[in-house]
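Researcher: For the annotation table, I need structure tokens for 2-oxoisovalerate dehydrogenase subunit beta, mitochondrial. Please keep the output clean. Sequence:
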Amino acid sequence: CGTHKMNLFQSITSALDNTLASDPTAVIFGEDVAFGGVFRCTVGLRDKYGKDRVFNTPLCEQGIVGFGIGAAVAGATAIAEIQFADYIYPAFDQIVNEAAKYRYRSGNLFDCGSLTIRAPWGCVGHGSLYHSQSPEAFFAHCPGIKVVIPRSPVQAKGLLLSCIADKNPCIFFEPKILYRAAVEQVPEEPYIIPLSQAEILQEGSDVTLVAWGTQIHVMKEVAAMAQEKLGVSCEVIDLQTILPWDTETICKSVVKTGRLLISHEAPITGGFAAEISSTVQEECFLNLEAPISRVCGYDTPFPHIFEPFYIPDKWKCFEAIKKMINY
């Protein structure tokens, strides 16, 4: 089947286009999606499929998700967009207390499993407090939903189509700095990449590096630096699904390497790295050669001019690897 050069936002558009074409119940809604969205992810879809299927909502995240739950319960494939992940909090109650619990509460008589919530996520170079956040850890504490974060156009399309097909409500966070940065050959036809499966991007023997979204690209650079400067062989793993996460792939890798570095942009305290770290410590204690290392954002609001100091860049990660190797 044919592939096209696509950046990340175009691969999202392609996935949404495939869904609207193949599923007559599919609807897409959110703030400004009718004219294509602030990041152009829904460009051309209203003209192609009509204003009953791709439409704007009021500026009300609680309402967007509440409406999405109702649409999904009634049988529609509901794809809700939250304009920035930072603005998902007004919808928190709807996601955590309604969407995540709907099936359980009704003893599986009803569910909103056909709901998918998309939101641009992560740092972008100039987003400051309200356009830079990575809120995945808030939702990782909530059984009943799935949380997924892609690193590139090919992954974005396959994982988004998996979320849309999945019989549970899913949150799909899109690394906004990559919307235009990453370009790949992406199949035009629909395809899926399974959820809850981490991907080993590079095999290695000395240290396991775990990340997701934008940070994967930092980890790949760090792995190259460690090899070149220290002769250290790094295994790089993209977690891809935050909830339910792939414990097996991570633990197998740590048994082999004996060292683990986890890195994310979100603040370190209570970040998802902590969950991975405690699980690995329980499962692989006697295999560890050094304490597990977390290189994350600081416990402050996301800064504006200090963003370069805040983000867990390759130098911070490189220092952490040196420390582990010399432990």
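Researcher: And a one-line annotation?
Model: The longest helix spans residues 215-230.
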